[in-house]
Amino acid sequence: MSPELKLGEHRWPAIATVAAALGMYFALPGKFVLGPKWILPALEAALIIPLLIANPVRLTRETQATRAASVTLIALISLFNAFSTGLLVHGLLHGIKLGGRSLILSAIEIWITNVLVFTLWYWELDRGGPVARAFGERRRPDFLFPQMSTPDVAVQDWMPGFVDYLYTSFTNCTAFSPTDTMPLSPWSKLLMLLQASVSLVTVAVVAARAVNILT
């Protein structure tokens, strides 16, 4: 296992990902936002503050409360992004009064948020989460990474880090299917299916609008 994981993973990649997802949310036109734009950041801040108090720099301890807060934080971003996706599709089908450029940019922002939020899901749930992975709570893996099937190419006791989950999320969004990392558990398969579905819908919206503009 890498020294980084033995010490506990850094908190900042997850916080930066949440901040980036909120940035994408703020960039959306009001037509694709559920309620006032301040609601989601306010809810996220209420959840992030106790998480930062519990683990300000590295993820070294976890309680049922912090675990629940982490999952709720990700679920809220997922929920709001799902509503934005639905509003985007509804707007396209009903001829929403929004320029082609704004509609395409909105679809791209929703797609990026989709990559970010599922990165957080995979990172938070695989093998019980980052704390469980770092401190030897041996659980069956939910994802089969290449380093696990070919251990000769990795360090001894290799464990995935945040970047590995980001790459998995991105490739699933672009290929609409697993690439080099395979889901093993039922929940990981369902999450990857859901992510690919959202990605396919947003790409289809962009393609449909682009065709409409060109014709």
Provide structural commentary.
With 215 residues, this protein is mainly α. The chain is built from nine helices and two strands; from the N terminus they run ααααααβααβα. Strands 1-2 form a two-stranded antiparallel sheet. The radius of gyration is 18 Å and the shape is globular. It starts with a helix and ends with a helix. The model has no long low-confidence stretch (mean pLDDT 85).
Q: What are its keywords?
A:
single chain; 215 residues; two-stranded antiparallel sheet; mainly alpha; 2% strand; globular
Shape label: globular
Q: How would you name the oligomeric state of the polypeptide chains in this document?
A: single chain
Structural class: mainly alpha
Please outline the major beta sheet: 2 strands, antiparallel
Q: Low-confidence stretches at least 5 residues in length (pLDDT < 50)? A: none
* Run of helices and strands: HHHHHHEHHEH
Indicate the radius of gyration in whole angstroms.
Answer: 18 Å
| Strands, total number | 2
Helix content: 55-70%
Average pLDDT across residues?
Answer: 85
Roughly how many Å apart are the termini?
A: 55 Å
Strand arrangement, largest sheet?
A: 1-2
Number of helices: 9
Beta content: under 5%
